[in-house]
């Protein structure tokens, strides 16, 4: 699994093609290869990024975390 912290932006996660989103009583299977999560705190659709980080002037460096599930 690869987690990408985008410069001045969101957290991008490669899903492998789909993921399950659970919140409260809601559970939805979403078929997308990537999901973008908010790390600026300004999204109106948390936990997902809605692009609000741009207007908020969020500043943070880019970074990547790769998880090796074979280890
Ligand atoms: S990182 Fe995009 S809205 Fe927060």
TrEMBL record:
GO molecular function terms attached to this record: 2 iron, 2 sulfur cluster binding; metal ion binding
Entry-linked Gene3D superfamilies: CDGSH iron-sulfur domain, mitoNEET-type
Domain Iron-binding zinc finger CDGSH type: 23-59
InterPro entries, sorted: FeS-contain_CDGSH-typ, MitoNEET_CISD
Keywords, sorted A to Z: 2Fe-2S, Iron, Iron-sulfur, Metal-binding
The keyword rRNA-binding is annotated on this UniProt entry: no
Any matching Pfam family: zf-CDGSH
GO cellular component: cytoplasm
Listed name of the protein: Iron-binding zinc finger CDGSH type domain-containing protein
């Amino acid at each position: 699994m690869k987690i990408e912290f985008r410069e001045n932006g969101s957290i991008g996660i490669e899903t492998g093609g789909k993921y399950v989103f659970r919140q409260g009583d809601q559970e939805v299977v979403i078929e997308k290869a990537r999901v973008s999560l908010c790390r600026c705190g300004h999204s109106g659709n948390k936990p997902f990024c809605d692009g609000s980080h741009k207007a908020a002037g969020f500043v943070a460096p880019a970074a990547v975390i790769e998880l090796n599930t074979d280890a």
